[in-house]
């Protein structure tokens, strides 16, 4: 199943990544802190604020190009019924994990209940290079390091158990979304 895990490097520029981090850091009024068990991070829902609109549209275009590449690389044909004819994007979230020994997202899957069951493809866009903070797939012995401008894509279902490891020397920033059935 590891053949459905793909990482594409340099899908956005370093400048774009730096601008996203700078805007995140200058918007503490938009922060939502999550801290439950092995899940600890701060996030902003980008669609909740007009200031993120242009960047969200740009990222959607990047994701659309990446979907085409993903389908080619995974040999998902356009003339079959295995890919939905209609789909949409779940609202994007920009997350920050501090190197405080606490922030991480332990082993989990991204479809775990009725509300999340519409998801069928994960997008994680790394906004910085980071020692630690990798996304791991423990059952497959696969690790995707935090590489600035790279995009990780994979199915969100139970066979793709994954975790966001603790960053070590500086905050980790990741922009995430999902393709959803509509």
Order of helices and strands: EHEEHEEEEEEEEE
Enter the CATH topology name.
Answer: Jelly Rolls
Rg: 16 Å
Total beta-strand segments:
12
Structure in words:
- The protein has one domain (2-181): q2cbj1_9rhob like domain (Jelly Rolls, Sandwich).
- The model has no long low-confidence stretch (mean pLDDT 94).
- The longest helix is centred in the middle third of the chain and has 21 residues, at 53-73.
- Strand 2 and strand 3 (39-45) form a beta hairpin.
- It is α+β, with helices and mostly antiparallel strands and 182 residues long.
- 18% of the residues lie in helices and 36% in strands.
- Strands 1, 2, 3, 4, 5, 6, 7, 8, 9, 10, 11 and 12 form a twelve-stranded antiparallel beta sheet that branches.
- It has helices spanning 14-25, 53-73, and strands spanning 6-8, 32-36, 39-45, 87-89, 93-97, 104-108, 119-126, 130-137, 142-146, 151-154, 162-164, 172-181.
């Amino acid at each position: 199943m590891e053949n459905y895990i793909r990482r594409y490097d340099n899908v956005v520029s370093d400048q774009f990544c730096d601008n996203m981090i700078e805007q995140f850091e200058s918007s503490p009024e938009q922060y939502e802190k999550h801290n439950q068990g092995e899940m600890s991070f701060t996030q902003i829902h980008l669609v909740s604020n007009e200031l993120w609109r242009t960047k969200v549209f740009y990222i959607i275009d990047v994701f659309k190009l990446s979907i085409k590449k993903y389908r080619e690389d995974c040999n998902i044909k356009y003339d079959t019924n295995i890919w939905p004819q209609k789909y949409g994007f779940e609202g994007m979230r920009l997350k920050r994990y501090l190197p405080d020994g606490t922030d991480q997202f332990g082993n989990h899957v991204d479809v775990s209940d009725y509300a999340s069951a519409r998801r069928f493809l994960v997008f994680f866009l790394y906004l910085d290079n980071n020692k630690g903070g990798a996304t791991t797939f423990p059952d497959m012995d696969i690790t995707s390091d935090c590489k600035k401008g790279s995009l990780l894509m994979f199915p969100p279902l139970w066979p793709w158990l994954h975790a966001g490891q603790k960053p070590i020397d500086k905050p980790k920033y990741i922009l995430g979304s999902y393709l959803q059935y509509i």
